[in-house]
């Protein structure tokens, strides 16, 4: 079983001869057009953030498989339109297999109770606090250490700017339940007010399948208190909505004429902060045009292996076996086995946490 203490020895990394791929928000650009035109748009409004790239400083030893590239996607909860700071209330792992052209998306519940190494002091807290405490580097390191991954790149977007991205592709189609309608309408009006847009131009949505603009789609993605069309509620339903939005966004772009892709570059990159250089994006994006990628998604944890949480000063948490979750993520990314298939074949692992609960006197809880 993998040790989650974060105190294991880090070995020197092997040679890492590969190009870094874009994330879903950059994949949707697909970059058809001249290189010169792309470079112009990239450099004009490009929120590039150079981060530490040494594997041992990001919590991993070596790349797992050269053809599979994992990247962190963060949705930042901020009240500032132009800020990329705050808690990462949306956390996803984007995995791209450059050999099979398969894209996989894994949501990690923001309230997952995990060990976080803050300047050598290990505390257990909600995983979304890593980004606000130490920026993208600590958030990436936490994902790598907890789930035994090899992430070294990220893309962050705040929710207001995500609305701009969705508007740039002409909106996306979503099926709404009656309970979701009120939240979408009120949420969209609030976003318009923050962006200083005329709310009278915003048409209310109704139940059923329809085209949502950026503000409406983002409001949909943030719903937590009512069930979605699959009957899932709370934060679990919210992560399901978020992955659905990402998939619909990708599908919308793939259905567009390639001549329109170049016009998406400016609004999308202006809405993101990323550690990817435009050269790294170009190296991978153009080959993707030759074949439509296959898309699949999942969530960690599934309700089948969630445990009763202990009382902590971190507040309401999502508590589960991190080692088992890491196995499910690896099977999904590297073996094309979904968590549902894995559990059907092997069952849910039952370690002593199920019997005794959380007991780590050597590690402090957040706030203690």
Give an overview in words:
The strands form 3 sheets. The chain has a 6-stranded mixed sheet, sandwiched between helices. The protein folds into 2 domains: 24-161 and 256-349, Aminopeptidase (3-Layer(aba) Sandwich); 170-241, Aminopeptidase. The protein is 36% helix and 18% strand. Strand 2 and strand 3 form a beta hairpin. It is built from 12 helices and 11 strands. The chain is globular and about 55 Å long. The chain is an alpha/beta fold and 368 residues long.
Spell out the key features of this protein.
single chain; 368 residues; alpha/beta; Aminopeptidase; six-stranded mixed sheet; three-stranded mixed sheet; 12 helices; 36% helix; 18% strand; globular; disordered N terminus
Write the layout of secondary structure elements.
Blueprint: H1 24-27, H2 35-44, E1 68-77, E2 87-97, E3 102-108, E4 113-118, E5 121-126, H3 129-147, E6 154-158, H4 159-168, E7 172-176, H5 178-194, E8 208-212, H6 214-221, H7 234-254, H8 262-269, E9 273-274, H9 278-288, E10 294-300, H10 322-335, H11 339-346, H12 353-356, E11 364-365
Parallel strand pairs: 1-6, 3-10, 5-11
Antiparallel strand pairs: 1-2, 2-3, 4-5, 6-9, 7-8
